[in-house]
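hey so u asked for the seq, here:
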Amino acid sequence: MAKHYLWALGEGIKGCRPGDLIAGRYLVKRDRLLVDTQPEQLPELPEEIPSVVTPYLRLFAYQLHVPQVYGLVSSQTSKLSGDIWLLENGPILKVTESLMPELADSWKGAAAMRQLNWLWQIAQLWQPCIAQGVASTLLTPELLRVEGQLVRFLELQPDRKPPNLSQLGKLWQQWLEDAHPAIANFLRQLCQQMVAGQVRHGEQLMGQLDKALAKCGRYYDRHVEIATGTDVGRSRAHNEDACYPPSGTVWGGNPGSEACAIVCDGIGGQDGGEVASEEAIAVLRDKLQQMPLHQANWDPLSLTSKLERAACAANDKIAGRNDSEHRQGRQRMGTTLVMALAHIHELYVAHVGDSRAYWITRTGCYQVTLDDDVACREVRLGYSLYRDALEQVAAGALIQALGITSSNSLHPTVQRFPVDDDCVLLLCSDGLSDKDRVEECWEAEILPILDGTVDVAKARDRLIEIANTRNGHDNVTVALIHCHAHLRDEGNTFTELSVAPLDTPPEPTIDTDDLPTDLTGNTAFGDPDSAGKTELVPPPDKGKSRLSLLLKILFLLGLGGVFAYFFIPPVGRAIDTAGESIFGKRGLVNPASRREKTVESVPSPVKSLETGSFIEIKSSAAGQLGKEGDRLDLRVAIGELTVKGTVPAGSVLQVTNKQLTPQGNWLELKVCSIPEIVRSNSPKPQSNKDFSSVSKPAINPSPAVTTPTPSPSPAVKPTVDAVAIAKLQAGEIGWIQERDAISKVASNPTPNPNQQGKCVVNSD
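ran it, structure tokens below
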């Protein structure tokens, strides 16, 4: 069995030296670098998840960059001075048993596109790390390691206070001297914008880097080879899997709509699963043919949105057929989906279910998709370590698949990866990926493709053989996409890039028209990026009169104030009270009417909620705090179906982040305080270890696909939807679509310090 290398955190590791054997199991190789001598056994697992490791779990979707918690070595077990937390998937070179190089050390001499790619990944990680309070990791050079194209974190650094992009710009300025000459001027200008506070959002930063990557990518020759295959396997009577191009195909060509591969694993038994998988591929192929994919209209925001809509269209086609045939429960057919598309300098990966995509380079094999199953959901919610979650009942039950419900409750994942070197993307159903077969065989069977010693067709056949002989319990489908990317000779002398200054930090907007992006200019780097789904708009015309606008605003404010004073009693009382504090009490004011230590917020029509603003959840007309219709249900993450918890009426929250998606704006809200009448009865969220009792939330009724009993030929893959909803406590955060929030909140109240609660600076 291969050695399992781990990185150690905690007080207990400080007294350990190379050669020590911790808890009779973990051998210390170097400072904080251990090897598990008994990897076949489960590590010690905590009874409760402490806050120090929660960010690792919440960032589980970013496992390409963020190591994951392997297990615990408690002080009671090890007899050491403190606990030790073990991280797996860290930036450790197994051959030399040492850490991968720091990004700063590998920066000098790297190609222009490689340098931009590293910075793009950091920009992509900025907002998720901010949300989890670990963005300081991106400002700590010794924690930023690189493995070929990939940026890897050694560990997460908690924030003492939230950092900003100005600090990130100052760090990047230290690398300017060794930047590739073609992008040195661009990076210098970009860092100046960041330090000056002109680039205020991670989406803006990604937009700038996206344009630079696109221009650098033009100097590469690119070619794509695809081989697909599907097999019924050793234990099934029929094949519910399907693929595109059709099984047995070997295709070669340039990036574009034909440089696409799809793998679907059907759900629903004979005359169900295979129908759903074929139906999905037919719809997706039709949608792809309608996408004009060529360099002149490269637009990652638009393409990402179109791929999401294509998956939803396939979902609705299958769901509609289920409804028309009156299929219910286990009889409803569905399918998983994993699809890859090579477009210009990027790879796009769309995913629903538990079929997987793996990215293979000369430096490693990386799983780039996260299974839509109960185990992964438990980790992302922060309830359980992955190894613990896998041991629970129904751990592999799916929480979503194409065709089971309407697309209103479907959340496809679309990722994109800039490609600056040769790589192979493997798409496969769980007939191959189960029992870690890909991790076992990639080096012997897939890596030779990059050396030219094995072609994609031969590698495809070998992977199907491995799936049948070492697993054999299911159908198996494989698609291999070999991407060639070679810098042309003249690429070393390509035109120097530059970036236009941003005089005013622009607000992100959504491009709803899917217009082509013009790449003919030499200095415009403000177009939208796909991950944040935003667009940088040009600064306003300075020629317009600012004085006129100011006068209009003052007039409207004055008029609104007069109206509010006479027609909204709470406002009148607030103004009278303020007048008393300044000019003294007047005879007309009744002292008994004064309220001590309360602030009445005036509900006003809310059109938009901005980052940093406070909001208060409006109560019902009868003042019934906690009434179901007047609460907010906050989600785990953007686009997530899972409800993290509910916040009752009367609570005060703060908008800590705002993200734009094709489905609308999403807000990250932090609970500042909740009413005392509710707080005393609000249980804290608890880990749901018994997956057999997991049920659907009332907000999303949909036909469930139950877990099948073991049989030689199971007919159905299970689906389970969400855990029970708990009331959130002060200090917790969650996401909600802006349109769902504005009807239930009063914007910009003036909460007192008690109401601001956990949102007061340094309150934690």
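The radius of gyration is 28 Å. The CA atoms of residues 176 and 184 lie 6 Å apart.
lmk if thats what u needed
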